[in-house]
């Protein structure tokens, strides 16, 4: 029997997919790249974006049509709103919450009946189930990059976001499990490890002192780096500005293995919009975090998330976001036009910024990003950087990798054996959104 899995959404879904694959292969199913060859096919959905949900409907329509001529089992899980979940019950053979993954083999044995397991909330203990889920070993999709979930759910309830309704309240994974997984990955030679959570820097707060906090977790991971000669970089996403204290920045500055790249979502540069978004932080509070980063880790790159055209956003408020872009000089910003999501508080509010204006604001903010990121990129020229080679580049005859600060660099080489290795590259040219260099040496850079 063969299986195929489609993964939509964020890195958390990507991490979850690695555990789904391990369960399926433990049952004897074999992965195939071509979904048309699969006997069982599933999708990890994302209700956070309407485009992702639209893709689910497109996929299941094709799969159900295939059922007319062949035996096929379909399933869906992931980050799904209750309203979407109910609709999917009529379309998929199996619907389940990700925390119920350990029960998946039993569900498959009864695949002839649509399984509303994910809706049986009254008979479940979500916290116990997510801890059981975390004990499922992942089948890592890469031999040198890995994602480690440290937390599930969110307690912040930003008015634009559906995550608290798709993943529930915050639950922290036992630190012993996280530290052991990091150690095992390092021993196996992994070079890039990303800690995942909806609000990673509130890690441990749900355990009321029975668990270490996020800074202490990073400190323990940093000690692993100090105890080995192997070079590796550890990242995390995403922290919340409200909980981004100086202590976390101090720990990152302390250890070489903690990647000097911070992804800190601002969402808007206007305080009134932030209040309406229920972000629970001001621009001033955000600025204090950035000042701590610039002081203690001056070499760190800074990434963010921004929403343009949020309900009621005025031109003046948008201009404040442009000011924030220029002030904080982001290396990368993931900019999205606001769209309503069922379940989120703002769903009932008017989506009153014209689509044309949203597109204009997106374009302007992207131009601003190009100016500030381009300035940083130009300063890289004629300097040498260690990069982790990740893949072939879209430019023929080139490979692509990332610096410790996650700046993507391409260089001329067709030696695919370099993928997954550290190399030294000298930057020869840069534009606002691209950096190019030449290979200087391939040496024993796996050792710090």
From TrEMBL:
Requisite cofactors: [4Fe-4S] cluster
What Pfam families does the database record attribute to this sequence? Radical_SAM, TRAM, UPF0004
The UniProt record lists the Radical SAM core domain at 140-375
Give all residue intervals belonging to the MTTase N-terminal domain: 1-113
Domain of life the protein comes from = Bacteria
Keyword terms of this UniProt record? 4Fe-4S, Iron, Iron-sulfur, Metal-binding, S-adenosyl-L-methionine, Transferase
Q: Which PROSITE patterns does this UniProt record tie to the protein?
A: MTTASE_N (PS51449), MTTASE_RADICAL (PS01278), RADICAL_SAM (PS51918), TRAM (PS50926)
What SUPFAM superfamilies does UniProt report for this protein, alphabetically? Radical SAM enzymes
Q: Which Gene Ontology terms cover its molecular function?
A: tRNA-2-methylthio-N(6)-dimethylallyladenosine(37) synthase activity
In short, the EC number is 2.8.4.3
Q: Which CDD domains match?
A: Radical_SAM
| InterPro entries (UniProt xref) | Elp3/MiaA/NifB-like_rSAM (IPR006638), Methylthiotransferase (IPR005839), Methylthiotransferase_CS (IPR020612), Methylthiotransferase_N (IPR013848), Methylthiotransferase_N_sf (IPR038135), rSAM (IPR007197), rSAM_horseshoe (IPR023404), rSAM_sf (IPR058240)
Q: Which residues form the TRAM domain?
A: 378-441
Cited function: Catalyzes the methylthiolation of N6-(dimethylallyl)adenosine (i(6)A), leading to the formation of 2-methylthio-N6-(dimethylallyl)adenosine (ms(2)i(6)A) at position 37 in tRNAs that read codons beginning with uridine.
- This protein is called tRNA-2-methylthio-N(6)-dimethylallyladenosine synthase
Which gene holds the coding sequence for this protein?
miaB
């Amino acid at each position: 029997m063969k299986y195929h899995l489609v993964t939509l959404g964020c890195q958390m879904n990507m991490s979850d997919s690695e555990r789904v694959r391990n369960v399926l292969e433990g049952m004897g199913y074999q992965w195939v790249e071509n979904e048309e060859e699969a006997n069982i096919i599933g999708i990890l959905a994302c209700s956070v974006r309407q485009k992702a949900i639209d893709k689910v409907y497109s996929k299941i329509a094709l799969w159900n049509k295939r059922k007319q001529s062949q035996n096929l089992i379909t399933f869906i899980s992931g980050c799904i709103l209750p309203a979407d979940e109910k609709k999917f019950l009529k379309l998929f053979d199996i619907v389940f919450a990700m925390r119920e993954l350990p029960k998946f083999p039993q569900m498959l044995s009864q695949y002839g009946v649509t399984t509303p397991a994910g809706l049986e909330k009254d008979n479940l203990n979500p916290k116990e189930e997510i801890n059981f889920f975390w004990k499922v070993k992942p089948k890592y999709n890469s031999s040198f990059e890995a994602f480690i979930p440290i937390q599930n759910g969110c307690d912040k309830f930003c008015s634009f976001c559906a995550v608290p309704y798709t993943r529930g309240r915050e639950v922290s994974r036992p630190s012993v499990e996280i530290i052991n997984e990091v150690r095992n990955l390092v021993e196996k030679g992994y070079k890039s490890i990303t800690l995942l959570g909806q609000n990673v820097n509130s890690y441990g707060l749900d355990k009321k002192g029975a668990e270490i906090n996020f800074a202490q977790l990073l400190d323990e991971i940093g000690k692993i780096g100090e105890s080995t000669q192997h070079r590796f970089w550890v990242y995390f996403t995403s922290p919340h500005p409200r909980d981004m204290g100086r202590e976390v920045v101090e720990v990152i500055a302390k250890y070489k293995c903690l990647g000097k790249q911070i992804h800190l979502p601002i969402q808007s540069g206007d305080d009134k919009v932030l209040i309406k978004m229920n972000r629970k932080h001001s621009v001033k509070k955000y600025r204090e975090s950035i000042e701590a980063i610039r002081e203690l880790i001056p070499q760190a790159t800074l990434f963010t998330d921004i929403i343009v055209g949020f309900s009621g956003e005025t031109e003046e408020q948008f201009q404040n976001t442009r000011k924030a872009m220029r002030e904080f000089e982001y290396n990368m910003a993931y900019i999205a036009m606001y769209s309503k999501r069922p379940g989120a508080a703002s769903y009932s509010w008017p989506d009153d910024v014209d689509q044309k204006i949203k597109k204009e604001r997106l374009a302007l903010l992207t131009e601003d990003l190009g100016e500030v990121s381009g300035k940083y990129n130009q300063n890289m020229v004629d300097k040498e950087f260690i990069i982790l080679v990740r893949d072939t580049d879209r430019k023929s005859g080139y490979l692509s990798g990332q610096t410790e600060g996650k700046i993507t660099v391409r260089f001329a080489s067709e030696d695919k054996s370099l993928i997954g290795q550290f190399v030294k590259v000298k930057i020869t040219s840069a534009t606002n959104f691209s950096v190019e260099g030449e290979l200087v040496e391939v040496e024993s850079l796996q050792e710090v």
